[in-house]
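During the no-cost extension, the postdoctoral fellow (Dr. R.K.) reprocessed legacy sequence entries with the updated structure-token encoder. One reprocessed record is reproduced below for audit purposes.
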Amino acid sequence: MLKDELTEERIKRIEEIVAKHEKRILLLEGKSTTHTSPKEKTWYKPGSTIEKIVNLRIEGFFNSEHTIAEIINEFKTRDYHLKASDLTLPLRRIVRKGLLKKTKKRADGTTSGKWLYVKV
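Re-encoded structure tokens follow.
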């Protein structure tokens, strides 16, 4: 009887750990885990440049490679007027989080002279 209780406790603990990991993965992929409240904490501030870039990623903008100039032009169409220097640090943080990849190789195998950002 005691052995069965220990096994059940271990199973419950493992299920909790798996649920936490699944939630983290969904957040990294930019997907909602449950009904999110506006006060839910993220690793970036609401309204920040990082949030704007993450939203572009969620919308599929980074399914193909884009330079910083192309990202700036996309933001201009949304009435966000940013400079390249406004994007470098947020892009670096997003790349380090593993949401985007920074590369000079295009999908067709050619090399670009500028850095390209694409969804991982």
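The first strand starts at residue 100 and ends at 105. The chain has a mean pLDDT of 88. The remaining legacy entries will be reprocessed before the final report is submitted.
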